[in-house]
Write a structure and sequence with these properties.
The chain is built from no helices and 18 strands. By secondary structure, it is mostly beta strands. It starts with a strand and ends in a 7-residue tail after the last strand.
């Protein structure tokens, strides 16, 4: 299923469903999310804890695809984040976002969780960035993760692999606030299209 959704209607489109519905949300001028307190996605590695209570608006997708969004946000507390997620189950998923660190810098990056263990790959960027585009392209069980500050020029963040195979994935946008609450973000669009990543 390919689509381009700008969330201009007054209700969530029928093709989508919530995973951990947020404290508050609204649509009509994009999808705005306000997070519950201390919500997160992480599995075991280093920190030891398991969290699976962040907010996602998902649709189901089979085969190869490219998933893309543009999101604006106003971070308040450390680790506030929003972006894209591709999910098989609680032990196997990928997310890409920017996690707020402090007023000076944030961490643009991704988490790939395989077989119940998460990793975290990051690069520092100025916290003055409050609008970013993210893109995930799937080719088999391999994934290309990219970001863009202007919606036109895309930079590779990483290439990753999911060890488990799933006939269908849940794909869409997510937001969470591991320390604070009421983190606000607005997803201006969400597009699912034919896979744009081709291996040479």
């Amino acid at each position: 299923m390919y689509l381009e959704e700008k969330f201009l209607q007054p209700t969530i489109p029928n093709a989508f469903h919530w995973f951990n519905e947020p404290a508050k949300y609204q649509v009509g001028k994009g999808l705005e999310i306000f997070t519950h307190e201390k919500t997160d996605f992480w599995q075991k590695t280093h920190y030891g804890f398991q969290r699976d209570d962040g907010h996602c608006l998902f649709t189901k997708q089979s085969g190869d695809f490219t998933l893309m969004t543009q999101v604006e946000f106003r971070s308040q507390e450390k680790y506030d984040q929003c972006g894209l997620m591709v999910r098989g189950d609680r032990k196997n998923w990928i997310k890409v976002s920017t996690e707020y660190e402090n007023e000076t810098h944030s961490r643009l990056g991704s988490v790939v969780t395989n077989l119940g263990y998460s990793d975290w790959a990051t690069q520092d960027i100025p916290s003055s960035h409050q609008q970013i585009g993210y893109r995930i392209s799937k080719n088999g069980r391999d994934f290309l993760l990219e970001s863009s500050f202007n919606g036109q020029d895309w930079a590779q963040l990483r290439i990753a692999h999911l060890h488990r195979s799933f006939e269908q994935l849940e794909v869409g946008v997510y937001a969470c606030s591991p320390i604070g609450k009421d983190f606000w973000c607005r997803f201006q669009s969400l597009a699912i299209s034919k896979n744009e990543w081709f291996l040479l």
